[in-house]
Design goal:
The structure is a single chain. It contains one helix and eleven strands, in the order αβββββββββββ. The protein is mainly beta and 165 residues long. The chain has one domain: Jelly Rolls, CATH 2.60.120. The strands form three sheets. Strands 1-5-10-7-8 form a five-stranded mixed sheet, with no helix packed on it. Strands 2-11-6-9 form a four-stranded antiparallel sheet, with no helix packed on it. The protein has a two-stranded antiparallel ribbon with strand order 3-4.
């Protein structure tokens, strides 16, 4: 009898502890996929998208926040080399957040690393699939945003000459 109760308790705990499953990285990304290898050009790759959704990212735990969609907004299939970070950032007029399921299956979240813009830097990125959600902080709404994939800069940085990328 205690084995049965233990099994039921374990099943219930797994169901309760699984909020990350709300973000379905098995779905096709809404705004596309980028296949790149270390040294890719142009750098940064800039992807226009609509940030936000109706799912509260804080249900993922940790530092995740903002409102995101169920399906990933974008996917990067990255072939890592040596001595290059992978920098993922977003830029918008709204207060955006990032939720990323990395190639190793870990979740990474950020809000406000660059003013009101999020940045996640993988200093030693692994090769593989990176699923990205761009959220909106504060309420379930949407806004136009730019997603930046780079090995050298964030979306909020300026290029030589002071121009926005």
């Amino acid at each position: 009898m205690s084995i049965r109760l233990t099994a039921l308790a374990a099943t219930a705990a797994a169901l309760i502890a699984g909020p990350a499953l709300a973000q379905d990285y098995n779905q096709e990304p809404t705004f596309g996929t980028l296949n790149v290898a270390t040294g890719f050009v142009p750098d940064p790759a800039v992807i226009p998208l609509i940030a936000g959704g109706d799912i509260d990212a804080s249900s993922l735990g940790g530092t995740c926040n903002g409102y995101i969609a169920n399906a990933p907004d974008f996917r990067v299939n990255y072939e890592a080399g040596t001595n290059y970070p992978l920098i993922i950032s977003a830029l918008a007029d709204a207060d955006t957040t990032l939720v990323i399921n990395a190639a190793d299956g870990t979740w990474h979240c950020n809000d406000d690393s660059d003013g009101l813009n999020p940045v996640v830097t993988f200093t030693s990125p692994q090769s593989g699939q990176y699923d990205i959600w761009v959220g909106i902080y504060g309420e379930p709404t949407t806004a136009m945003a730019g997603l930046y994939i780079s090995e050298v800069m964030t979306g909020g940085q300026t290029m030589a000459g002071g121009e926005e990328p």
